[in-house]
Design brief:
This protein has helices at about 10-20, 25-35, 55-60, 75-85, 120-135, 215-220; strands at about 1-5, 45-50, 65-70, 90-95, 105-110, 135-145, 160-165, 170-180, 185-195, 200-210, 225-235, 250-259. By secondary structure, the chain is an alpha/beta fold. The longest helix has 15 residues, at about 25-35. The radius of gyration is 18 Å and the shape is globular. The relative contact order is 0.17.
Length: about 260
């Protein structure tokens, strides 16, 4: 198998396939969350760190005014090309999710697969939520999904899954590399094994993510008073089954409400 070095985000076709498998459940959950938690109607939506736009373009297809941003130029190019292919406006742009503005405040925003944990410092995280507070109107929500560090039990650190599309198959494995509890940083090895009719390749990358216990997240969000924690759910995406966050919680989707 040929070894290819690089950032997984530089391979948007592969990245999109690997992380697109749960889009239906996420999409249905988000629409249910809009209906349940947003004051008034939801017409405009926004996704920071939208990547390839696996959810963004489907929101646009459904009729929402959907915008997004990401730091990776290749991912944004892929996202906009897909929007254009479906006859939709190219509404994704390259920007830092800590420093951006939207043309008009949105009704709801979402970020569902750990992307905000790429922000490595408390300062960057607070700046992100401040920027999001300017982007989301009062009464709107920000659905934020990520993995907490449980204070009870063992963390589920290793994941393996397979994704297929036509003649393309990707086996993915993610496992811990090292953790710095004091600095609250975790590094994970991420491997794509890609099988195509023309041959197979392997991409190895390392993700650096900031860690949060449930108390650390609650403390951080209080630093941005425009937001309050409205509700929380787990990765079963059941809008009728909110959860209570405690020391054993690991998978969570927070519904943050814009005051």
């Amino acid at each position: 198998m040929e070894q290819v070095s690089g950032n997984i985000y530089d391979y948007p076709v592969y990245y999109d396939l690997v992380f697109a498998s749960d889009w239906v459940a996420e999409f249905k959950f988000l629409e249910a969350a809009f209906a349940k938690h947003v004051d008034g109607k939801t017409k405009r939506v926004f996704e920071p760190a939208c990547g390839t736009g696996r959810l963004l373009f489907r929101m646009a297809k459904k009729g929402y005014i959907a915008e997004g941003l990401d730091l990776n130029e290749k991912a944004i190019a892929y996202c906009n090309a897909r929007l254009k292919k479906h006859g939709l406006k190219e509404t994704a742009w390259v920007a830092d999710m800590c420093d951006f503005t939207v043309k008009k405040p949105v009704d709801a925003a979402f970020n569902t697969i750990n992307s905000f944990r790429h922000l490595g410092t408390e300062k960057a995280t607070v700046e992100h939520f401040q920027a999001m507070a300017k982007a989301v109107r009062p009464g709107g929500i920000y659905a934020l999904g990520f993995h907490l560090t449980p204070l009870e039990g063992e963390a589920s650190d290793t994941e393996c899954w397979t994704a297929r599309r036509g003649n393309l198959q990707i086996n993915t494995r993610m496992w811990p590399r090292d953790k710095d509890v004091k600095a609250r940083m975790e590094r994970f090895n991420l491997r794509f094994e890609i099988y195509r009719p023309t041959g197979s390749i392997r991409i190895d990358d390392c993700l650096a993510l900031r860690s949060y216990t449930w108390k650390q997240f609650a403390s951080m969000i209080k630093k941005v008073p425009e937001w309050s924690i409205e509700a929380a759910y787990d990765f079963t995406y059941d809008i009728d089954e909110p959860i209570e966050i405690d020391a054993g919680t690991e998978d969570v989707v927070y519904i943050l409400k814009r005051k």
